[in-house]
TrEMBL record:
Subcellular location field: Cell membrane
UniProt keywords, alphabetically: Cell membrane, Membrane, Transmembrane, Transmembrane helix, Transport
Gene3D superfamilies the UniProt entry points to: MFS general substrate transporter like domains (1.20.1250.20)
Name by which UniProt lists this protein: Major facilitator superfamily (MFS) profile domain-containing protein
Membrane topology summary: Multi-pass membrane protein
Matching PROSITE patterns: MFS
All copies of domain Major facilitator superfamily (MFS) profile, residue ranges: 1-130
Main location: membrane
Transmembrane annotation, as ranges: 19-36, 42-61, 82-100, 106-126
SUPFAM superfamilies, per the entry: MFS general substrate transporter
Keyword Cell membrane: yes
């Protein structure tokens, strides 16, 4: 909840691109930490950081989608986004389960964090530089 409440303040001091970049990076790094953590306290802190990051960048994503999508296509774009997200969950669970059996759950979560952190590469695209 803190991330959602602070997102209004964060938006006043940071650009949408910065919020997305740091949110994605922080979320991915928190997953790496979560996978490698050895104590319950470290798990709690890593989870809190990841949750804060997700709650901070999700409103920005939704706002951008509504801002740049033509009104007559907004429902289709939202539905397509949700469909793609929900359709990939079973595949991701299968891959994570198989990987978890082979190399262990801690390392599997850390690898997921590395992949999630790599998503910041999209912010190097020229059109992403235009985000305000």
């Amino acid at each position: 909840m803190l991330g959602s409440f602070l997102s209004v303040f964060i938006r006043k001091v940071a650009s949408q691109r910065s919020i997305l970049f740091w949110g994605y990076l922080g979320g991915g790094l928190s997953l790496i930490w979560l996978g490698l953590a050895q104590s319950y306290t470290a798990l709690l802190i890593a989870n809190a950081i990841g949750t804060f990051c997700a709650a901070s960048f999700n409103p920005v994503i939704k706002t951008l989608r509504q801002k740049i999508t033509p009104e007559h296509m907004l429902g289709r774009v939202q539905a397509s986004s949700r469909f793609i997200t929900m359709a990939l969950i079973p595949l991701a669970a299968l891959v994570a389960g198989l990987l978890g059996d082979m190399i262990g759950t801690h390392l599997t979560i850390a690898i997921g964090g590395i992949l999630a952190s790599g998503s910041i590469l999209i912010f190097l695209h020229a059109e992403m530089m235009e985000l305000g």
